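CHAIN AND CONFORMATION:
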Amino acid sequence: MTDKQNEGPELRCSGCGIRLQSEEQNKPGFIPQQALDREPVICQRCFRIKNYNESSSVTVEQDEFLRLLGQIGGQEALVIHIVDLFDFHGSVISGLQRFIGTNPVLLAVNKIDLLPKVTNWNKVRNWVQKEAKDLGLKVEDVVLCSAKQSSGFDRLLDALQSYRGDRDVYVVGATNVGKSTLINRLIRDYSDLEQELTVSRYPGTTLDMVHIPLDDGKAIIDTPGIMYPSRYTEWVSPQDLGVLLPDKPLKPAVYQLNEGQTLFFGGFGRFDFIQGERQSFTCFASGRVPLHRTKLERADDLFRDHAGELLSPPNRENLEKLPEWTRHEFRIPKGSRSDLFISGLGWMKVNNDVGAVVAVHVPKGIKVLVRPSLI
């Protein structure tokens, strides 16, 4: 080959410069083995952008992603941070502001189609703004959207036009939040793909970003999706991922519970009502996750004897691949109107104003927290 970067044992993509590999399709630099003899030699992500006007999702570990983010602070950029409304606190990029400096941020909140149609969207938007602020994220605007239904994108494009100026646009997000769909829409609306995919990398950047040229000489920069091990979706098998991730509007399941009762979310998690007056709790989770009620005093034995069978999915084999369960106890104050949130699995809304002591059991490391009620 004449291109120096593609000589020797370490082949590199002529489009983005990433080291090429043929082993893991969802990781940066993937190229099918049979494509290695083509000219130019480009990774699958660059190939799809150049030939099909679309990007495919790739992922990197958290430390590598933070190194990528560190490059944005030195650029003049508009950052589009896409998050998953179903897993808001799990998909928000912690400490984003530290890495991007004073660059403006648009917060694109995807998967609004999962909430009931009667939802008050102004209240949802206000909730997102408050939670983002409490997490230390300064945003210029919040756009609610649905990649699945292609709704909200016109407003996002209007916001992008208002805030971009002559900046590059960086799109960042965690895995499974719909980032590639957003990138594909931006490519269709903004990029002249008769130009060659950019072959020059910006000085000082790592090689895992794809630069999609814009008509004004700037670029949309497609970054890999970040993997957060605190999200349930990063731990389960592909089969179980299809169970965890809802694909239809959530149907709230209301349970009237007495003190000393337990709800199992299949074999994914467990909710204990430890202390408090009889009251209702509303479950927001994928309709494919079965709920099973039992007495708290029987819960340990039930899980030991029936996890992966009666309490499934996941099945026993996949369950054994997850970390051991840990217990998180919370005191819900009177009148707090709170959700008990489990990253990637959903949340329990505490409906009454009398307060309660509750506990959640999930694999070690999964994010669990109490937050103001979303709806």
About this structure: Residues 1-8, 193-206 have pLDDT under 50 and may be disordered. The first helix runs from residue 44 to 52. The chain is about 25% helix and 25% strand. The radius of gyration is 23 Å.
